[in-house]
Write a structure and sequence with these properties.
It is a single chain. With 224 residues, the chain is an alpha/beta fold. 38% of the residues lie in helices and 28% in strands. The protein has helices at 40-47, 69-75, 91-101, 106-119, 135-147, 165-181, 193-199, 217-223, and strands at residues 3-12, 15-25, 29-33, 55-60, 63-64, 76-79, 153-157, 185-190, 202-207, 210-216. It is globular.
């Protein structure tokens, strides 16, 4: 299994973000769908061990989310929705630093940073400071940082957010190539169904912190 959560509840004061959520997901490209406030970001933070849940249990790649948080983050790549870049740092330096944070030796991290920047189409901008990047370039830089350590699972949180149509298509194609061409398992969180359909075979749908539906995308479309 990629991950499994059992009866997980997480509240922020009076707001319950996850309500007794139980879900199990196998390898492959999995879409995470739901409107704002559905619990998608809290689910992702739970999988990464960035927050402690109120009750329930879970594991990612066979590792307990309560006790093996650092081990999980060494095996999982994460592209956050929020801005997380260092403005004055060159792109290649930012990606190499992300590799070192995942435990890579500095020389290996730098070599791999050059490779993944070529892959995402930022080879010519690698030495430019991040503050000079366009929105689309920043999104691709975040993707490069998320895959620099060749993770077993890549989590993408609204990866096309703020991008123009051409940039959005490029990001979707990169995600699809990683999952279908390179065999990397993905959790692709979005509120845009066309993006999820273009990348994923399986989908998990959340609503108000609970599991609404789960299954093969094509089979679910035919059923409705």
């Amino acid at each position: 299994m990629l991950f499994r959560l059992t009866d997980v509840t997480k509240s922020y004061g009076p707001v319950t973000a996850l309500r007794g959520l139980s879900v199990a997901v196998g390898p492959g490209a999995v879409g995470l769908l739901g409107p704002n406030g559905a619990g998608k970001t809290t689910l992702i933070r739970t999988l990464l061990g960035l927050i402690r849940v109120d009750s329930g249990s879970g594991e990612v790649l066979g590792l307990d989310v309560r006790t093996r948080r650092l081990d999980i983050r060494q095996r999982v790549g994460f592209m956050p929705e929020d801005e997380c870049l260092f403005p004055a740092v060159p792109g290649v330096g930012f990606v190499a630093y992300a590799g070192e944070l995942c435990g890579m030796p500095p020389a290996d991290a730098m070599q791999r940073a050059h490779e993944v920047l070529n892959y995402v189409g930022l080879d010519e901008a690698r030495y430019r400071p991040v503050e000079s990047y366009s929105t689309g370039m920043k999104q691709r830089l975040k993707l490069a940082a998320a895959i620099v350590h060749d993770p077993q699972l890549l989590i993408l949180d609204e990866p096309t957010n703020g991008m123009d149509p051409a940039g959005r298509q490029e990001m979707v194609e990169l995600a699809r190539d990683l999952s279908h061409g390179k065999g990397m398992s993905l959790l692709f969180s979005s509120h845009l169904l066309p993006d999820v359909e273009a990348v994923c075979d399986h989908v998990v749908v959340l609503g108000r912190g609970a599991l609404l539906a789960q299954g093969d995308i094509q089979e679910m479309k035919q059923a409705h």
